[in-house]
């Protein structure tokens, strides 16, 4: 923690903040710079919520001195059940399929106690870095009722409910839609408030399987959040078949497609036609720059030639909602990371060359991700919303995106939030953590 310390427990006004216009609602703005999309604002805080400064009258104030403030981060695609297992699994040196093999071999080690300890460690990192909401995919080989990952998640969700809003996706192979117990699986997911997920790899998708998936989601009132076409094979058709199924059945739930790397490899005309249909279907895309940048086009002893990114420029231009997220952290799929969304955003800007319009892409880690998760009280600096934000020791986008270790002050419900772990950045092996009930 560094920088600002808010006075007292009563109302307070933060003066002279620099804020992104695209993420700020209900406050007078001045000194708006159209090129950067930043403006200056005075923002009040009362009873843990943002309020117009003028509504507070005389009260204590703090001059932010032009520091940049962003809403708390929304990290909508992570794998808490795998986090911090790289010391057991190693990591892939030959792409996605090898990472899957290494991760599956570790599955028997994921006891409830092991999962709780590692999930808690992950959330402590995310909390200290300014994340306020996360959606985790959980490997669901059986029904959630018989899953250690779901048992652990239930405990973790309760313990963290006042600090990070958590959602869970039941991640399974697509072929499970053909099994007799699939409807029971969906019913169990719905009872737990979960999201229906699937891994749609090359050759796995058929119209019949996607029909079963979409119709089951509709029957049980479930949203969909899927791993789709996580490959650089331009012939991958999972995303196209998913889009067709969503449109064919007029599916009314939320549909999120993660990865979508193959979409960038398709011929331009085919790519653009599919993107147009995705926009029509209301599909949201989550791009995962860290893991996909690490795994795609990976082979020992040679330099990768292609980048594992969804075509975010073209998707956004067509009106498709875009989010960026952490994905894997220190596991077989990606051996680095710290659940720091600023690092994710920096990598996205580098890989996808977004630096010309940083304000345009700011919602991808905040508002647009919150909308995809159906979160109404996150992702914006809005009057009436919870006063959850990050104030950086940065004064413009170049400061924020160009540094290697940007200091930050975390606000939780309007108060300076001390992290739950030592903020020295020293490594704490997950195997040494002990779970303590809340």
From TrEMBL:
Identify one Pfam family in the record.
Answer: Amidohydro_3
Biological process according to GO: cytosine catabolic process
Gene3D superfamilies from the UniProt entry = Metal-dependent hydrolases, Urease, subunit C, domain 1
The Amidohydrolase domain is annotated at 104-395
The superkingdom of the source organism is Bacteria
A GO molecular-function term, please? cytosine deaminase activity
Concerning InterPro entries, the annotation shows:
Amidohydro_3, Metal-dep_hydrolase_composite, Metal_Hydrolase, Metallo-hydrolase_Enzymes
Name of this chain's protein:
Amidohydrolase family protein
Q: Which organism is it from?
A: Ectorhizobium quercum
Q: What is the lineage of its organism?
A: Bacteria, Pseudomonadati, Pseudomonadota, Alphaproteobacteria, Hyphomicrobiales
